[in-house]
Write a structure and sequence with these properties.
The chain is an alpha/beta fold and 691 residues long. The protein has 22 helices and 21 strands. Helix 2 crosses helix 4. It starts with a helix and ends in a 17-residue tail after the last helix.
Length: 691
């Protein structure tokens, strides 16, 4: 064995380039074994899709060429191959439990995603994964210490890297130009299987943003804007407008093989039979809630962005753009977002101000929240939140509501013994369990839909409500599982109102929905709404898509020719978290405990004493308790609304403690100075961190 290894080392030293190529090919085969979820699938991938195998191999080989410049080339080659394989293993695990594949975006939003990891993975799985990585890293460190140094041939290495990079680029361009691979992935899971893990993950890492149109110029942007300016007077209607985006919601009667013990969505189906609506084409399957939000709010088409990209995780964290919010604010509307999940998930607390929201009520600001067996908040809490928001202003309101309850994962085991609806027609017991869990969660969301309509029927203000699903659930279905002409990208919408307004029924894409609603109400001041309207929402019109892409590129990545002056550029709003102030009215030392008396506390409220976050017991919306603490005269107190153990969304004003309510003093200068830091997702130290 030693003789064989010695000869292999000698051969490797004489033929480093060939060795690198072979290592890259073997690495891709191993990666595809995990990606295709079988050994045979990985081995056969090179024959099943040879061009994409070459593309994937060239990308890996290009990264493996970097160690050619380094003296400890072998260990660096091992490390890079190891990283690629680890990513494929992580992708295997993520697809197993989350059903959608690993993207570069997942690392960018890792901080907010950590809060829901336990909904997909057991603790022992997480611990085992960490231990496995630690062991392998230990082996690599040992190998690094023992590795022999080899003097690189720098000129040859430089040529090899240039050639590999050129071949990688050429192979990718060939795949795109021959339409072997698309520039946008509608179904991420299928894309990873068809086009390879390495290519798809790399595309999610590097292929962000909107490519510059060939005809992009100030003149062409101005021509598009002039063509779509409306000179009509806006209607004097000012109803409240509520969009309700329903997580993974669709009409399960479109599943052709299943029958149900009762209708899972009777309320939504009743609305469909009486009110206008239609098919709503969404951009993705099984995932993409934030992208559906982006489409609906902005009137922009997320498919012009990179493969698998979430604008919430990229451009929308740093820039504003035209949206239905800014349009309605010009008409006197207040704009609100409501979501019964964490406020920092997909950085909504940072993105929503760039979309023009005045307030954002996330689950941290809600009372009486109930959770399902997976830990997702039940949607019935949203009815009261919507009513509270409507009543919080005197004028007209736009409320964008996002539900969460039917979110996966959809377990193949029975995890909820309170389910009441059953189905027949599943292929096996695992599929039956997954779908039964889903339809029972769906049924409870449908009950929320019915409750909201019943509540608003007699509401004193005219109100329009648009219900729609954000995407279909990823339970392994494809088009063949659906009735004829239905696809996995077909959601639905319905428009209800309590004032007798007339809407027509028609099929739309998500990025046309808000424009269709505002134009139907007679609002004429939104540029992209006019563009959609003037092209009659015709998705097959290439000129329409060309103009829409041009405007999107210009306002997000270009020179902003669309705005004639700087005053037209939308400015971020000073968005507040929640609609009610969280206030401290008294601080009482009762025995060994500190009691904070105030208003609008929730389970997410945490007391801070002199800058340290304390373990806090929620008693009621008016009382919090910090146990086993003596608060001293002159110390400060405030309340933080926590999105996680350390990250906060907003905080109350700061008070000095001076023995009783008459001596509870606001520190005006400090409150004014730190007000701009509110709701920015900062972190706070725990009281025990130094112990």
């Amino acid at each position: 064995m030693k003789v064989f290894l010695h000869k292999m080392q000698q051969w490797d030293e004489k033929h480093p380039v060939i060795s690198t190529v072979i290592t890259g090919i073997i690495t891709v085969i191993v990666i595809e074994m995990f990606n295709q979820r079988s050994v045979s699938g990985g081995l056969m991938y090179m024959f099943k899709n040879p061009l994409m195998f070459i593309v994937n191999a060239m990308i890996v080989i290009s990264t493996l060429c970097i160690p050619l410049f380094l003296k400890k080339r072998r260990i660096w080659t091992m490390l890079i191959s190891f990283l690629w394989i680890v990513l494929s293993i992580v992708n295997f695990c993520v697809r197993t439990y989350r059903t959608t594949p690993l993207r570069a975006l997942d690392f960018r939003v890792a901080k907010s995603v950590m809060n829901i990891v336990n909904m997909y993975f057991e603790t022992w799985m997480i611990a085992l994964g960490i231990a496995g990585v630690a062991v392998i890293l230990g082996c690599l460190v040992f190998a690094w210490i023992k590795a022999r140094k080899i003097r690189p041939k720098y000129k040859n290495c430089f040529v090899v890297i240039i050639v590999c990079a050129a071949l990688s680029f050429l192979s990718v361009e060939t795949a795109i130009n021959t339409e072997t691979v698309p520039t946008h992935f509608n179904n991420l899971t299928n894309a990873y299987v068809d086009y390879g893990f390495v290519y798809c993950f790399s595309a999610s890492l590097l292929g962000n943003g909107i490519s510059k149109p060939d005809t992009y110029s100030r003149n062409n942007v101005n021509l598009i804007k002039e063509k779509n300016i409306s000179y009509e007077e806006s209607s004097n209607k000012r109803p409240n407008i509520i969009f309700v985006q329903l997580e993974s919601f669709f009409d399960v009667s479109n599943l052709k093989d299943f029958t149900y013990s009762e209708d899972p969505t009777p309320c939504f189906n009743k609305l469909k039979s009486k009110y206008p609506g239609g098919k709503l084409t969404v951009a993705s399957f099984g995932t993409g809630t934030a992208n559906t939000e982006f489409d609906v709010l902005t009137g922009m088409n997320v498919q012009f962005f990179g493969a698998g990209e979430y604008p919430y995780a990229t451009i929308m964290r740093e820039t504003t753009c035209e949206s239905i919010n800014y349009s309605l604010k010009e008409l006197g509307y207040s704009t609100h977002a409501i979501h019964n999940h964490r406020g920092n998930f997909y950085a909504r607390n940072k993105v929503y101000p760039n979309l023009g929201f005045d307030t954002f009520t996330s689950v941290e600001y809600m009372q009486n929240v109930e959770y399902n067996v997976l830990g997702w908040a039940k949607d019935k809490v949203l009815t009261q939140q919507i009513v509270n928001t409507l009543e919080s202003t005197d004028g007209s309101d736009f409320i964008f509501t996002v539900s969460v309850q039917p979110h996966g994962r959809y377990s193949t085991e029975v995890i909820d013994d309170t389910q009441t609806i059953t189905l027949e027609g599943a292929a096996d017991e695992g599929e039956k369990n997954a779908y039964e869990y889903y339809i029972n969660q769906l049924h409870q969301t449908d009950e929320f839909v019915g409750e909201l309509v019943d509540t608003l029927k007699n509401f004193k203000e005219p109100t329009v409500v648009v219900f729609y699903g954000d995407h279909l659930p990823n339970i392994g279905m494809d088009d063949s599982d659906l009735v004829e002409e239905a696809t996995i990208y077909d959601s639905e919408y319905v428009i209800w109102n309590n004032a007798g307004y007339k809407f027509d029924s028609r099929d739309l894409a998500t990025y046309q929905l808000s424009a269709y609603v505002t134009k139907s109400l007679g609002f004429e001041n939104w540029g992209l709404a006019n563009l959609h309207y003037n092209y009659e929402y015709d998705l097959a019109n290439r000129e329409y898509m060309r103009d829409l892409k041009m405007i999107q590129y210009d306002v997000l990545y270009g020179e902003s020719y669309y705005y004639y002056t700087e005053d037209e550029v939308p400015q971020p709003t000073d968005m507040r978290m929640g609609i009610y102030d969280i206030v401290i009215e008294d601080v009482l030392q009762i025995g060994e405990d500190v009691h904070i008396i105030g208003d609008n506390f929730t389970e997410s409220s945490a007391v801070s004493i002199d800058g340290d976050k304390m373990d806090t017991v929620f008693i009621s919306p008016t009382e919090l308790v910090v146990e086993d603490v003596q608060m001293e005269v002159g110390e400060t107190a405030r309340i933080y609304q926590m999105a996680s153990s350390r990250s906060w969304l907003s905080r109350s004003e700061l008070y000095y403690y001076k023995l009783g309510p008459a001596w509870l003093v606001k520190i005006a200068e400090m409150n004014e100075a730190d007000a701009i830091e509110n709701s920015k997702g900062n972190s706070i130290a725990n009281h025990d961190d130094d112990e």
